[in-house]
């Protein structure tokens, strides 16, 4: 049988948020390739080899997956959330473009998953219900100056904003810098949602005003949503609902 490569999203954490299409690809695979914690989300079974690798080895991992597929393996590359959102699909295509010409003949598919911003938004209500943008706050692959420019322009254009990678062990001050920019550019009452470990047993959803937001509210398992000027909060018994109306002036 000839090999193939599927680059899939495992969703934010819960089994129920993995699409049937991705589950079928995993059942059919001979090899699963990915960052160790994501590979560990795929149950071991006979006939399946799991290749876990370290966080910053995306290109080497992508090359390994392409080569395995070329050798006839049925390979699934796993990401959390959606594979096209700050994840492995772009890494595989970077490797494909720069690498062995034979890889271009492979059967390659990207299978979508539920991205963290969509799962987080759904938990809070509908904060991304009007125009929004998402920004990766990590400065591993781009300079902080570019992140800051995009933040300021997004605020100026009055987008709601979803932030991935607010901070990490190697970037402990990451989110503090972001909050400083937001405080300069937005009004103090602007709504901020901290959605941590959505759809896992550690899930927590916290809604606050920008003036009360602190850097420690975000860690590497947190997706942060900052509302636009239009974003509103509906108080009720239990958790409030946050939403952005469909129209703007
Ligand atoms: C490298 S990005 C991967 C994004 C992923 N491809 C997606 O579409 O969700 C990792 C970041 O996604 C966010 N994230 C991933 N899973 C999450 C979850 N279950 N709850 C909240 N945020 C999550 C966090 O901001 C984390 O730092």
TrEMBL record:
It comes from Halomonas citrativorans. Pfam families: TP_methylase (PF00590). Pathway: Cofactor biosynthesis; adenosylcobalamin biosynthesis. The keyword Transferase applies. This is Cobalt-precorrin-3b C17-methyltransferase. Keywords: Cobalamin biosynthesis, Methyltransferase, S-adenosyl-L-methionine, Transferase. The keyword Zinc-finger does not apply. GO terms for biological process: cobalamin biosynthetic process; methylation. GO terms for molecular function: methyltransferase activity. InterPro entries: 4pyrrol_Mease (IPR000878), 4pyrrol_Methylase_sf (IPR035996), 4pyrrole_Mease_sub1 (IPR014777), 4pyrrole_Mease_sub2 (IPR014776), Cbl_synth_CobJ/CibH_dom (IPR006363), Precorrin_MeTrfase (IPR051810). Residues 7-213 form the Tetrapyrrole methylase domain.
């Amino acid at each position: 049988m000839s090999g193939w490569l599927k680059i899939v999203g495992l969703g934010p954490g819960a089994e129920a948020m993995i699409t049937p299409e991705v589950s079928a690809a995993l059942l059919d695979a001979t090899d699963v390739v990915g960052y160790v914690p994501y590979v560990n989300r795929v149950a071991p079974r006979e006939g399946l080899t799991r290749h876990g690798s370290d966080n910053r080895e995306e290109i080497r991992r992508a090359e390994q997956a392409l080569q395995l597929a070329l050798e006839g393996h049925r390979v699934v590359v796993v990401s959390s959330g959606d594979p096209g959102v700050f994840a492995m699909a772009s890494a595989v295509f970077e490797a494909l473009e720069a690498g062995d010409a034979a890889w271009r003949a492979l059967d390659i598919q990207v299978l979508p998953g539920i991205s963290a911003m969509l799962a987080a938004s759904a938990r809070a209500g509908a904060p991304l219900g009007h125009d929004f943008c998402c920004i990766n706050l990590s400065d591993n692959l781009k300079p902080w100056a570019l992140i800051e420019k995009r933040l300021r322009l997004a605020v100026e254009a009055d987008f709601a904003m979803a932030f991935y990678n607010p901070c990490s062990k190697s970037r402990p001050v990451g989110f503090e810098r972001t909050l400083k920019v937001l405080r300069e550019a937005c009004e103090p009452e602007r709504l901020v949602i901290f959605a941590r470990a959505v759809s896992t047993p550690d899930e927590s959803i916290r809604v606050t005003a920008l003036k009360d937001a602190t850097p420690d509210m975000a860690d590497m398992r947190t997706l942060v949503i900052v509302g636009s000027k239009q974003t509103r909060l509906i108080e009720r018994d239990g958790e409030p609902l946050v939403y952005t109306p469909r129209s703007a002036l």
